[in-house]
Give the backbone structure.
Amino acid sequence: MLAPAAHQTEDVPPTPPPASPSISTMSHGSVQLSISQTLERKRKFPPSHPRALGLNSSISKLLVFDMLSFRLVDTDSFKQLIAMAIPQYVVPSRHYFSKTAVPSLHNQVSDKIKCALRNAICGNVHLTTDTWTSKHSQGRYISLTFTGQPHTFTTNFSTARGKRQQAVLKLKCLGDRPHTAQELWRGIEQQTDQWLLPVGLKPGLVVCDNGRNLVAALGLAGLTHIPCLAHVLNLVVQKFIHNYPDMSELLHKVSAVYARFRR
């Protein structure tokens, strides 16, 4: 007969605890959600949910900064992308973004600009303006940009000066016909009255090209015109090319060489 097996004194490892009822690991390594987690993922954000408001703001910036059509948010492909990335989020209609979200974003930016204008040094704000005709036959436009320096501020440890700031105040359509100096100045004056007068500021120097009507408009208002350096350099180059006809052929050859190396 065989002798009975010797008694084993080694500790038997404890039985592992059962898996959590909320998550079970599949054989291929994926994670299966519990019923409560699945229901939570399918529950939609209410309109006032912080995550929904943040996503609305992000989409508004996407539409504005990239100049996309409001119809983007109504397309099936965009909705499918959002449903895959954030199932709980319901994309508002394009009317919400055009009537509510983007105007709200505009007001926020306007408030920041007004705050910067209140801190301008010496009570003057320098302006840049220009006029041009749309390539799509949508009329003539005039733009107005401000440049200002904030007040010096002092802390307990140092004195610092804010960086120069600039912002486009207005892009205004003037219609589809040429405009006189009086009409151009009236378009600029409306914007200076809207942005500068409420905060006690006055327009300083105005940078623009040498357009006759635009320069005359600034003269009517008694503003100092500073010629645009980029425009002046362009006029110099254009006149040089006009006086040397052979230069055009040379530039064409240089452009062809550049295009070949770029490819």
Summary: The chain is about 45% helix and 20% strand. The first helix runs from residue 35 to 42. Residues 48 and 94 are 18 Å apart (CA to CA). The radius of gyration is 33 Å.
